[in-house]
Amino acid sequence: MPTTARNGSFFPGAADLAARIDVLADRLSDGLKPLASIAYNYAWSWTRDGAAVFRDINPHRWELAGGNPVRFLGDLWPGTVEAAERNPALLERVQALSEEVGTYLERPDRPRPGVDGPVAFFCAEFGFHSSMPIYSGGLGVLAGDILKEASDQALPMIGIGLFYRRGYFRQRLDSAGRQQEYWVTNDPKSMPMVRVTGPDGAPLLLDVPLSGEPLYFQVWRVDVGRIPLLLLDSQVPENDAVQRWTTARLYDGSRAIRLAQYGLLGMGGMRALQALRIDPAVIHLNEGHPSLAVLELAASRVAQGATLADALAELRDRVVFTTHTPVAAGNETYSPDEFLGAFGDLPGRLGIDVSEFLRLSQSAPDGPPGMTPLALRVSGRRNGVSRLHGEVARRMWQPLFDLPEADVPIAHVTNGAHIPTFLGDPMYRLLTEHLGEGWLERAADPATWAGVHGVPNGELWAARRDSRERLVTYVRAKSQQDRLLRGEQIAYVRAIEDCLDPNALTLGFARRLATYKRLYLLTQDPDRARRILGGAQPVQLLISGKAHPNDEGGKDALQRVYNLKREDGEIAERVVFVEDYDLDVARHLVSGCDVWVNLPRKPMEASGTSGMKAAFNGVLQLSVLDGWWAEGFDGENGWGIPGDEDPDPGVADQRDATTFYDLLEHEVVPLFYERDAEGVPVRWCEKIKASLATNGPMFSATRMVDDYAAWMYPTR
Questions:
Q1: Residue 46, Cβ neighbours under 10 Å: how many?
Q2: Contact call for residues 453 and 689 (beta carbons, < 8 A)
Q3: How far, in Å, are 184, 240, 243 from residue 233 at the CA level?
Q4: Is the pLDDT of residue 32 over 50?
Q5: What 3-state DSSP class applies to 247?
Q6: What is the pLDDT of residue 716?
Q7: How far apart are CA 280 and CA 111, in angstroms?
């Protein structure tokens, strides 16, 4: 009988997890022992007092541990444990957290109509906490939010990904403002994860055929609330050095390594499920990278006597494919030799010839093979990640289907963000007071948010001021440390103490710094940028993000902004680049800024989610009407830049930059500084309420997972 994932208690790896918890608990005093089991489940990270309980045991060591509770508890000094044991208030909070998490995890599954079993959610990256750095940006964070929300809704789901021993790169800027990359090794021994063992107690060891040789891999389990995440890892003695590197770095620069990663994720992920006797009702391919999972399952049907056509016809009804980007780098293609060199055994196992195999992964006859066309062909239900992106995807992939564009079978499920993860404390307290206990469980219902219109403006403004002050404190401390690490002059290091005004209008621009995100528009007109930033009504700008190591254009844009700040003392105190963008940095920025800026080249932003997270916190949008904002903007809840397509990119850039500066200078800044007798910007606060009431329910992960469960997951 297939193993289920209910509550995680019967899922493979349960005994391994219990053993690791016992080892950690033995190091702790009686009052702290409940934290051992909490540390091995990331549910604590979105429980309101979860992180604070760990931090308040020893704030310095919590910071040193990078928010990793297993490492933190394992490294505690005996004196720290003894001091915690003498703190009754802290021990009460430990017990309360243990009871809250326990109750949360013990709820029964809530299956959905038409979904007869768990959803297997495949993705190349998962971003659910900075202490598990196996993500690069929006795709991974979106995947993490889906796991969290599925857990909140008790939707049976299993995640399948890769465990990258060196994760994604860490970022430093040199003294010239040029991005430098380095990698840090992830040690599973000190991370909240366990290796899955077989019936004999030995680590489960499986293999997939790649590049003419077996690639061996082991399986790790990470618990994200109620959802078990299986991470495949090629770092085993049976592989040679090159094979072990397969799971070394996310989105490795080598095309051969990336192909091996996608083969391991898809074929290896399906083999792991089969070895663990898990038969998913739905296979959700989050981007094209894991699309070989379906062919692996089809190969097992062919081995039992079916034809490939019959096998795929049977399987398609179980397969959902979500495409996330129209950008070429996200839909990478390969030469036939590269593709066959990696997956040359598959045609034989599928009972087809090489030409037919290649046709499965080509968007046009004789075109280059790729994972996205393959995912489109093997899936029965397909979606983009916003209404506009659905239109773009239908136009983009129309040749593959050879249908009128309107009939191309690609729907859309607009992305959402996990509110408990990204909602800062000041706004959480305010919204809970006015929307009522349990409002987060009803976040997808517009009626839940109607109460924001009754929030007194003074209270709303106080929460926003508190959020901004916390952000300024955080950025000052982090930037000072970053400048010390960069070897800056002490005077410049100390100057950060005078940077940023906790009462000034604060703009945020933070995201993956791909060229199409157009960071450079912020300084398209340097003189005007200086005039706005250096004006009598203070405006300050926080920038954060990473350019891919091979993206020289993205690095150039970052360096230009950095040098404008360094060369102009007049605005130096009002522009800060926050290094090494990750989930922790993001949570601070989206909660504390006043305005969230997004300037993509339309229609390249399939969805974007950072602005959604900011909107939950009462941050207003000043963004191009692309992705999610094209359907979120109603004329009253923020500011929209049309960003219409133009055959001349330079013309579009100049036009959009001018619109951005005009809106900022003539509408945003004056409205922010328009105050009543009590110093409250009344019209600004009313705009925040309009944003919360419209964007809160529409772009919550609750609504997103509801949509998947209702429209995309049920079998026909």
A1: 24
A2: yes
A3: 17, 13, 10
A4: yes
A5: helix
A6: 62
A7: 13
Q: Residues of 552-577 as b/e, b for ≥16 C-beta within 10 angstroms?
A: eebbebbbbbbebbeebeebbbbbbb
Supply the pLDDT for residue 496: 82
Judged against a pLDDT cut of 80, whether residue 2 lies above it is answered with no
Considering the domain delimited by 422-699, tell me its CATH architecture: 3-Layer(aba) Sandwich (3.40)
Where residue 9 falls among pLDDT bands split at 50, 70, 90? very low
What is the structure's pLDDT at 573?
A: 76
Alpha-carbon distance of 151 to 224, in angstroms, equals: 8
How many CB atoms are closer than 10 A to CB 550? 10
The tokens 């010390």 sit on which residue? 484
Residue 3: is its pLDDT beyond 50? no
Task: Give residue limits of the domains in the chain.
Answer: 14-105, 119-415, 422-699
Of 634 and 253, the one with more pLDDT? 634
Of 606, 585, 583, 512, which is closest to residue 553 (Cα–Cα)? 512
DSSP states along 16-69:
HHHHHHHHHHTTS-TTTTHHHHHHTBGGGGGSTTHHHHHHHH-HHHHHHTTT-H
Q: Rounded CA gap, 122 and 252, in Å?
A: 19
CA distance 385 to 699: 11
- Thinking of the domain 119-415, which architecture would CATH place it in? 3-Layer(aba) Sandwich (3.40)
CB-based contacts of 629: which residues, under 8 Å, 6+ apart?
Answer: 598, 608, 611, 621, 623, 638, 640
Higher pLDDT, 478 or 550: 478
Q: State yes or no: pLDDT of 566 exceeds 90.
A: no
Question: Alpha-carbon distance 172 to 579, whole Å?
Answer: 6
Q: Apex CA 77: angle with CA 75 and CA 78, to 5°?
A: 130
Task: Residue 374: count other Cβ atoms within 10 Å of its Cβ.
Answer: 25
**pTM of structure:** 0.95
Average pLDDT score over residue span 640-656: 93
Question: Residue 425 in contact with residue 465, Cβ under 8 Å?
Answer: no
Angle at 293 between CA 324 and CA 360, to 5 degrees: 75
Q: Work out the average pLDDT over 299-311.
A: 95
